[in-house]
Write a structure and sequence with these properties.
Distance between the termini: 26 Å
Strand order of the largest sheet: 14-16-22-19-21-20
Largest sheet: 6 strands, mixed, barrel
Structural class: alpha+beta
Shape: elongated
Strand content: 5-15%
Number of strands: 24
């Protein structure tokens, strides 16, 4: 019992060490679990939401649309739980200019169901549900009415054998018809599209850019009122996929098995079958056209023959009359009247030659008959020409049918191809990578501080340990005094750390995340396994340090432990050998120098602890500086143009005329901008059509006219880059990169995320959904956005294939020879404010779809999520620095109580004692800061390299002010600790301290 009481008394006396170990453990466990828990809560809530709304696991698209046969074939694939055929149609409407939207049918099989946020779901024809983004932009509300125009209605219809793509804007065969939606619409609800969780009021909305190939909004309509049997796409749910987390590798493997089966069996067969359907439909149309033409020609021929017969009868009648009259006249000149009467009673018989001669004579003598004959001959000639021309046309179409209908291609995609899904996953993964890295530093510091504190604690009880061992107590029992002390401190600190880690930090992160994404049903959850392992990790580390400290003392005999520990032998330090310096140092300075370098363990612990804390602060500030400079570097350095203006294809000419007439442009470059995707090409067939299997990125495809390739360098800084170490990248000379016809130039932000470099093969998807494998000629320095630059010639080589004529919004064969330059990059005169105002005024023009001012983007760019994480890291690092310095300062004082008592006996005043002790701590702190500053740059570079976020590349930047802030903050913590240590020094009693050994 006395042993236990003494142990408790010892614990109470060492309350400062207890608090230090508990605080370090608290911070470490909080960092270890906090960021992880916040990301995990977001992952889980999003996964539950996706399962509840039936977000598709696989989506199948086709360049020729999908038929009922295609849907039936997909249902037979092993592993497919459910298949939903989807119909959609692109429409336009007027909303401060022409805007586009996708009319999406709400599926009846429970896949891709929109989440109702306000109002009710549409049920009747003409009712729609819209997204909150549309409500915000349009100012409309539930009950408002809207009239839309199908895009097919604003363009010319195609030939009878036209076979448009999956959008189905024209009839493809005799039975499959393109989807058609009502045009008079009423808003009855506001919904969240499960395929895009971006918050319309957050960071994504501010920096998003919509081009002509992407609709601005999505409207959800019920099946009632939707016509057409041709499907835009098919969405699939995979058996067993819902049981896996959509963000785990196990889910990807489950889905991949099904996509591989589709690629391996169904895809090839249905591509051939679908093309044969189109060929049969084309042949049937040609046969029907021939039959209809033959019928029309037969009817026309019958009409001409009837008219000609009537004409001949009229002429023959005149011929007969003239022949009879001639015969009567000849008889009148005869011998008697009887002969005349007999002659008059009988029509003379004329041979065919005479009769034909008389016909020609009669027709020639009569203008009316001549005109009638000419009309009949002309009608017959025209009919013959039409018959010949039609037959030739039909034969030509028969010959061209096989070449005009291209090979049908399927594109099998998983959730990675959804821009909203991949962005959320990448954001959370990147933040989680920070959460995996920082706890390592905290753990190392915790072990170092625990070793220092517990070693001193054991050394102080050296005589007591010898007494207990001499009295027969086991070494394990004696060591349990310190092991239980460290264990209790870890458990209490770890428990508080779990509260902060699973409640405080996640709540803070999720508030920021909800500003970027809409995540219904989000809740905080506790992970027993991870939380227990988090505490256990620090318990093991601290107990290991405690065991080491106990072993170092208890391996001695009780007699040795009862005797005072021999003072450390004096020795020369390196500075003493530098006589010019050493001789100029005062007595107290020499003592300070000897104390610093003689006690190497204290030197290593103090410098290492301070360096680690300083490095964490620098790392956080480095990330903050990097993010803060992204906008300025991108929009003022890389983008040399001041304005980007984008219009619809049909308004491109009017847009350029408008900008030119304003007189603000000093130089410009016409380009074509489309939204697309860049996918890392696999090792197999480059046209496999499977997107997202090796990583994909949403891109902005910029096509440059072949006559102005050299002008691109005047609008965009072209600098080749190569990956470096520590978050750096090798940047080539400005202007050394040129766009040519041999490949594309990929932005560094996309290349870094996907591991793309010069010479790589990638698959590009243009605005029409056509995919092609392209060569990367170079990687260009780019921090925000994922631009891919391609020459007009190379674009035509990649996309102006027969596939392009069979996809939505595709151009006719005549138009495909020349791209429509729907965008303009321009340099403007005037201040930044005037440029921003001009861009805003352009957006009000009906011919302009989007106008972006680089000056405005540079000033308004921000990244709230990373800023919040940085603030959290800096705060935790600062707290750790304060605890570390407090622990080291108290340990330093406890080790040197007799020395301080001696100084007081020698006549040192309290302030002089303060200065004597604190000067050593300040020097060690400065040494730790000097080591921690470059270490922080190193760690910051390594962490930013791991932050592969969509459309962002973190080019590490640490401003001099950040180094100053980190150094000043650490020194300020050291000064703050002195305020707690100085009273301890004042309470040292010289008499009792010097008698303590005895």
């Amino acid at each position: 019992m006395a042993f236990v009481k003494d142990m408790l008394r010892m614990w109470a006396h060492s309350w400062k060490r207890f608090i230090s170990i508990a605080m370090i453990t608290l911070l470490g466990v909080a960092v270890l679990t906090g960021i992880y828990a916040g990301c995990r809560d977001a992952f889980r809530s999003t996964d539950r939401f996706f399962d509840a709304q039936g977000l598709h696991d696989v989506q199948v698209l086709s360049t020729a649309g999908l038929s009922n046969g295609d849907i039936a074939a997909l249902r037979k694939v092993n592993g497919v739980a459910k298949v939903q055929a989807e119909r959609s149609q692109e429409v336009t409407f007027d909303l401060d200019g022409r805007k586009s939207a996708t009319m999406q049918e709400i599926g009846t099989d429970g896949i891709d169901q929109p989440y109702l946020q306000e109002g009710r779901m549409p049920k009747k024809a003409g009712e729609i549900a819209v997204t909150r983004k549309f409500i915000r932009d349009s100012g409309k509300r539930i009950g408002s009415r809207l009239t839309v125009i199908p895009e097919s209605a604003s363009s010319d219809t195609s030939d009878t054998n036209d076979t448009n793509g999956a959008d189905g804007t024209n009839e493809t065969n005799g039975t499959d018809e393109a989807p058609s939606f009502p045009t008079k619409l009423t808003i009855v609800g506001v919904v969240l599209d499960p395929q895009n969780l971006s918050n319309p009021d957050g960071y994504s909305a501010m920096t998003s850019f919509r081009s002509t190939a992407t609709t601005d909004y999505t409207f959800f309509a019920p099946s009632d009122g939707v016509t057409g049997t041709l499907y835009t796409s098919a969405t699939l749910l995979v058996k067993g996929a819902a049981a896996e987390s959509t963000f785990d590798e196990s889910y990807e493997n489950t889905v991949k098995q099904v996509t591989d089966r589709i690629d391996g069996t169904v895809k090839t067969d249905r591509q051939k079958a679908r093309r044969q359907e189109l060929l049969d439909a084309g042949n049937k149309k040609i046969a029907d056209a021939r039959a209809e033409a033959d019928k029309k020609f037969a009817d026309a021929q019958s009409q001409i023959d009837a008219n000609r017969q009537q004409f001949n009868q009229q002429v023959d009648q005149i011929v007969s009359m003239q022949a009879g009259a001639a015969a009567a006249g000849a008889a009148a000149n005869g011998a008697n009247a009887g002969a005349a009467a007999a002659a008059g009673a009988t029509t003379p018989q004329l041979d065919e030659t005479t009769r034909e001669t008389m016909r020609e004579t009669i027709i020639a003598a009569s203008p009316e008959l001549t005109q009638a004959k000419q009309q009949l001959d002309q009608a017959q000639s025209q009919l013959n020409e039409q018959k010949a021309s039609t037959e030739q046309t039909l034969k030509t179409k028969e010959n061209e049918l096989k070449t005009s209908i291209p090979q049908v291609r399927w594109y099998v995609q998983d959730r990675q191809s959804l821009g909203g899904f991949s962005a959320l996953k990448s954001d959370l993964d990147s933040i989680q990578s920070l959460g995996n890295a920082f706890p390592i530093v905290f753990l190392l510091v915790a072990v170092m501080m625990s070793l220092t504190a517990m070693a001193r604690m054991v050394e102080e009880d050296r005589s007591l340990i010898g007494t207990y061992v001499g009295l027969g107590y086991g070494r394990l029992a004696v060591a349990s005094r310190y092991l239980l002390f460290a264990l209790l401190a870890c458990l209490i600190g770890g428990g508080l750390g779990l509260i902060a880690g699973f409640l405080g930090i996640p709540a803070f992160l999720l508030v920021v995340l909800q500003g970027m994404y809409v995540m219904p049903g989000l809740r905080l959850e506790y992970d027993w396994l991870y939380g227990s392992l988090g505490i256990a990790l620090f318990v093991v580390g601290v107990l290991a340090a405690t065991i080491y400290a106990c072993v170092q003392e208890m391996r001695q005999t009780p007699a040795s432990l009862l005797r005072p520990k021999a003072p450390r032998a004096g020795s020369r330090i390196l500075l003493e050998r530098i006589r010019p310096v050493w001789n100029r140092i005062g007595f107290l300075g020499k003592v300070t120098a000897r104390n610093i370098f003689r006690f190497k363990s204290r030197l290593i612990m103090t410098v290492g602890g301070v360096a680690g804390c300083t490095a964490l602060i620098v790392c956080g500030l480095a990330i903050n500086d990097t993010v803060a400079d992204l906008g300025i570097k991108q929009y003022r350095d890389i983008y040399q143009y001041d304005l980007m203006v984008v219009s619809d294809d049909s308004d491109a000419s009017a847009m350029r005329t408008k900008v030119a007439s304003d007189g603000r442009v000093t130089s410009s470059l016409d380009v074509r901008i489309e939204s697309g995707d860049l996918t890392v090409a696999g090792s197999g067939d480059g046209d496999s059509g499977k997107a997202g299997s090796s990583g994909s990125e949403s891109i902005q495809l910029v096509a440059v006219p072949k006559k102005h390739l050299s002008d691109l360098g005047e609008m965009v800084t072209l600098q080749p880059v190569s990956s470096g170490i520590l978050g750096t990248s090798g940047v080539g000379k400005t202007g050394s990169l040129k766009l040519d016809d041999d490949g594309v130039i990929v932005a560094q932000s996309a290349a870094s995320a996907l591991g793309v470099k010069a010479g790589s093969k990638v698959r590009l998807t243009n605005g029409d959904g056509v995919q092609a494998t392209a060569k990367v000629s170079a990687v260009n320095r780019n921090l925000i956005g994922s631009d891919v630059y391609v020459s007009e010639t190379y674009y035509a080589k990649l996309f102006d294939s027969k596939d392009a004529k069979n996809t939505k919004n595709s151009k006719s064969s005549e138009d495909s020879e020349a791209l429509t330059w729907n965008a303009m990059l321009a340099k403007l005169s005037g201040s930044d404010t005037s440029q921003t105002d001009y861009a805003e005024s352009l957006e009000e023009d009906s011919s302009v779809m989007k106008a972006v001012s680089c000056a405005h983007m540079a000033d308004s760019f921000k990244f709230d999520l990373m800023g919040a994480v940085v603030a959290l890291i800096v705060a935790l690092a600062g707290g750790l620095a304060l605890v570390v310095l407090f622990t080291l300062a108290n340990t330093n004082v406890s080790e040197r109580v007799r020395e301080m008592a001696t100084l007081k006996v020698l006549g040192f005043f309290d302030r002089e004692v303060h200065h004597y002790v604190n000067r050593e701590m300040m020097i060690l702190t400065v040494m730790g800061v000097i080591l921690g500053l470059p270490l922080g740059r190193l760690v910051g570079g390594m962490l930013t390299m791991a932050l592969n976020m969509p459309s962002l590349y973190f080019e590490v930047e640490v401003k001099p002010l950040s180094y100053v802030i980190a150094a000043v903050a650490t020194m300020a913590f050291a000064l703050l600790v002195q305020l707690f240590v100085n009273p301890v020094l004042d309470r040292i009693d010289p008499i009792s301290s010097l008698k303590s050994v005895e």
